[in-house]
Amino acid sequence: MTAPGAGIDTALDEMSAPGAGPGQILIKAEYGTLVWSEILQDGGRAIVKLYRRRPFYDPLRRWFIPYRAEREFKLLSHLVRNGVPCSVPLSWSHGRRDPHGLYEMLVTREVAGATALDKLLQRPGVVADLSQLLRLVRSMHDCGVSHGGLAPRNILVSFPAGGAPAFHVIDMSYGHVFPRGIAATRMATFDLLDLVYRLRPHFPAEHCNAWLAAYGLDDSAKQGLMHALGRYRPRGHWAHLRRGETDLRAAIARLPGPRSPRGRDSRPAGPPSASGT
Ligand SMILES: Nc1ncnc2c1ncn2[C@@H]1O[C@H](COP(=O)(O)OP(=O)(O)OP(=O)(O)O)[C@@H](O)[C@H]1O
Ligand SMILES: [Mg+2]
Question: I need a surface site. Which of 40, 119, 135, 170 has the fewest CB within 10 A?
């Protein structure tokens, strides 16, 4: 395939048979989403995510909601600028081409040799210390980013030669950038709950507590979070409400001038409260 992002038409033609192009490896093929990797001109590899857009409501929707690929591109760029390890964005694009219809596409650089954390959790002992991951989450929150889907499948782990495991966040399609750090806000709490809910079955409580301390939670905030975890459900009705709340807060935070909120989103980063359920 040609350079990612440059040859969209070619890419879309080849899309009907992903895996067929030289060096292409199909990662995910679902209705509406195709993910594959391919070779970059510099010899590295790219991850290409292609989303089909629904033609019926798209013409209306695109006036109000930015492209998903564009949003993710901007969020990842913001993380790169702030030194937060993530899937490095290369390009995004959108268009229409028959017979594929409307599409949007995001290209990022592959994290070489990385495995998604959810797969590693199935192999006890491979990743034993997640303090570094929680520090990464804190740095993401400190630069104003809420992830919105912080599940282990959206965290990649690589193993640099002779070093400790390295973590990278990916898949920011539900994320937002706020004008200031969000570490003491409900949005940060939602991310932590999403993550700890899925880690907790694999590790003793004292390990999770130590990692939350690495994030910067004090004892009472940790207790609050663990208590909230008992009532927390990452999917379904409540997940939609949490996403809705984050979308609304992000929209309010973008309002210009004196109407900008001076409340929780605007506070300097501090330990999050666990009241965000
Ligand atoms: N930068 C990257 N380096 C290596 N692999 C990646 C990278 N980005 C994505 N992947 C791989 O592609 C898969 C899908 O990527 P991503 O999670 O961004 O897309 P998605 O369609 O939103 O997936 P899902 O809905 O299943 O979470 C990941 O699980 C991972 O295996
Ligand atoms: Mg994902």
Answer: 119
